[in-house]
Amino acid sequence: MILNKISLRARVFLNLIVLLGIILGGGLVMIWYTYSIEALFTNLIDKDVGALRAAGALELNLANQKGLVSFYFLDKDSKWLSQLNRYRRNFKTGLSKAKQYIFSDIDKGYIDQIESEYNSYLKIKDHVIELFMAQEKEAALKLNQDARLEFFKIMELLNQYKTFCEARINSAQNESRTQAERLRIIAVTAMSIAVILSVTLTVFFMTKILDPLRKLALETDRSGEWGKPGNEVMALSHQVRGIIKDMEKFALVGNLAAGVAHSIRNPLTSVKMRLFSLERNLELSLTQKEDFAVVSEEIRHIDTIVQNFLEFSRPPKLKMQMVSPSDIVDNALQLLRHRVEAYEVTITVNRQKKLPEILADPEQLKEVMVNLIVNACEAMVSGGSIMISEEEIERKDLSRILVLTLSDNGPGIPTSIQEKVFQPFFSCKEEGTGLGLTIAERIVTEHGGWLDLQSREGEGARFIINLPIAKGEQ
User: Is 322 helix (H, G, I), strand (E, B) or coil?
Assistant: First the structure.
């Protein structure tokens, strides 16, 4: 109830404010998101820092192992070997901890190589101790030189791994700052654009919608009761309700007219049959025969009007089957053969090959062709010619359509009324119902196609029936 009392202008402005709030809120969320991304990068950096610290601890434990075997050689005190084992265990523990920070193949490569080299180093050192205990000092000293080289090799690997981690930390820090600053710039830009768009939208609503809506409400107010600003929607709603009521009345009248037309058709058929029987059984003079011919023609005209009206008000359902449009054209020409001759019109069919079959209602499409041919014949008062062309076309989207083109050399259709010829009850003929082309267009549309008109006054008319080929029919 409260919203009904709010004017349209107030509603529009309220919506704009809400829209602006949403956009600004979204921008603020984006800025918050940049900080979240920065935190994510920081987390990644922390992993690299952890890996760097683990590498430093490994380096320290390895350095502590240096010289302990030499000390044992000098005084043969077993405490040096105990310390060596302790540092070895620390190194193994540090190596396991370093593996927890592996998140790339490069990290894994470094750690695996360090572990492999350290295992080789341990084997050499253990062999050195064994030689010393066996009183083979010269061999032990010589092998110890190899162990020293292996030691420095591991130290170099650890140093390289630390350098790699430091470089990755610096790169991640720089990248996180760059991304965060970029997103903040985007957010600020988006909010600025949102403000500009909101202002533009407000001006647009004022000049292009609200003011014309107000004028329309004033023009449609027949009672003269509406004049208060801000009641555009209520006034238009009132007018629309009136239009709906009028349309309901028209629908009732239409149903009543359809029922009347159906009731007329039955006795009209009986009259036609009796008239035909009388014409055959009575000996009529020439004048009477002419009168009978006029009466028959007028009854046929009435029957056509009733038939068109019934088809317009209660369109029959399509009875789909596989049929070639070429066969439909032939059937229509066969049906109209004598009538076309009476109009002194010649019809030529341009057909390179028979069109493929499609799913369609042959009787309905035949009605379309009959309607177009009869209209063309009636337009050419002194006779003329009609060309019917058939072709299959592949469109740019690779879909295929069947095209039936009916061209005549009659007077053509003026440009000023071409948009009206498909409208119900519009006719250029005094005795026309104005429903023929309307029904024809509806039938083609129900088949998923479309009916086009091309004409210039004095140069004839061309009606083009476009029927799509479904994928399953190709």
Answer: strand
